Amino acid sequence: MLIDFFMDNPRIAVAFSGGVDSSYLLYAAKSTGCDVTAYFVKSQFQPEFELQDAKKLADQLGVPLTIAQLDALSSPVVTANPADRCYHCKQVVFGKLWELARADGHTILCDGTNADDDESDRPGMKALRELGVISPLREFGLTKADIRALSHAAGLFTHDKPSYACLATRIPTDTAISAEILAKIERAEGRLFDLGFTDFRVRLNPPNGARIQLPGNQLDKAIAEREAIATALETAFDTVLLDLSVVR
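Above: the chain's sequence. Below: its structure in token form.
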């Protein structure tokens, strides 16, 4: 059981994103009496709302939160955006997290990877393994559905929060990543959220188009509000397309 992990490791650091999984991990550690510190690395790849959610939850749980700024674009291999970009990015981000955690005397760093996460589709998990990051939720077989249910029972506001991949995933492989493109995508997604859409992605359609992916139950809304969507995005993008493929 997960509680056994915390009993065996009463002092840990948690890589905290403000998402469903790491939020529950933080709650479980705190509620077990574990001496836990949360660490959030803010780079160009995380939207501002993730940081605000992380602050809110850490405050509600009474868990100390360390926030560090990181220039993810300082790595040439990350900005080049190869197929294994996530691996190189995780090396940079978790290298920073380890630096922060060790400075506070921690010897165990955990993350929120769950049992549904497929390593064959997530090169970043290889980096976590190489860096000695522990994933208790995955080790104890907790799936995303399990974690949402447990989070709901615990009263965490993150229990129904949509899954959110970092902004870099919006840019096609081998298309260079820049701060300008990331900021443009973050603003576009913010505008769609303001229009009432949820759990969607705005992907770059090179050279300067937007390709919107929505859940199936929001496609009718998108058609009905196509003019509002175009108005919201057309100043930043040359074209705005609706993609019928599955959001992920």
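The mean pLDDT is 95.
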